[in-house]
Description:
Structural class: alpha/beta
Amino acid sequence: MKRRALLAGAGALAAAPLIDVQAAGAAEPAKHDSKVMTGAQALAKDGWKALAGQKVGVISNPTGILEDLSHIVDTMHASGQVNVVAVFGPEHGFRGTAQAGGSEGDHVDPRTGIMVYDAYGATADKLATLYAKSGVETVVFDIQDVGSRFYTYIWTMYEAMLAAVRTGARFVVLDRPNPVGGHARGPMLKPGFTSGVGKEEIIQQHGMTVGELARMFNAEYLPLDANGARLKELQVIQAQGWKRDQLPADTGLTWVMPSPNMPTPDTALLYPGMCLFEATNLSEGRGTTRPFELIGAPYVDYRWAQALQTKDIPGVAFREAYFTPFISKNANVLCGGVQVQITDPYKAEAILAATHMIVEAKKLYPGFSWRAENPPGRWIDLLTGSDRFRTMLTAGASAEEIVATWRSETDAWTARRAKYLLYKGDHR
């Protein structure tokens, strides 16, 4: 669509102490006024004692930093107190040089001389082989998650835990706050819809830290070994001073991009919903400075923003926007659409917002479709955890009707996860 046609009629619109995995609870600071200490910083402060005398393999990426912004692997290596025998890089790589769906491959890290193995998409069998090859006795996981089922780092951890069961390795999680807080939202993954973006039945926005998820994985999902046990030992080094209702602005922690298209905490807040646009022919903003905030396509005009501005969606507002992505879908093509503006980060409901957006886009534009794949719509099924979202949308259901179908699932998940939680605060 030419620029003048797209803009026609646009007009002006309103714009640690080391804590055993079985321990529950953490120090409870006053809200919004205390600095949080990550599990990595607590372990470093204690002189890395939990790793003494062990051959250590580290699963990490650029988010595995300490208070001084140094990376844990670099600091461990330089300290001489930790014998790091291998590093395992997830999606985007250990040093973060790869784009979405990519990794760095196996290589020797030029800074430390440590062997780095490609763990993106690696099965437990492959990881177990790598543990044995490198002599790993203790596996350390330190990656900043963003709280969504389809963000692949938690599944890297899951496969790494399976491999640890098979090899008898200890597993240590250096915990970090969940940047979208402790609220659980969205639909449950159903049997038959597991994939690399959802290997077990958890909710779309799980509201847990990786340490809490590790506790659940170990108790409910990992298989028993020949001796009737799961992990030989699971230790979660808790973040100190974090409460479940705190967001990144409350923690005093430095935000490091967990992946190339996760530049800010606001991106993380929107991601549990806006990632659904990956399954459509609309751009989800990759290739712009505001991924998962700018959403649009060449066929979208001012009417989408106009329709969305009438919705009462907590914590967000919609601004008519025009952009040209330089990579990914609709690269180098002018797109009309919206910028999703966060008006209250403590109330923002990204999955609800995205559901309204997709329903309205389908109503307004004959050009709306699922991304090209076989079978059509498979990716939206995997992202939402079943074919329910897609079939209801096709049948003309409203956003309210779609959202209502998973409320009981969210409630059941919230009750089920309770015994694995380590941090106090609002965790509805």
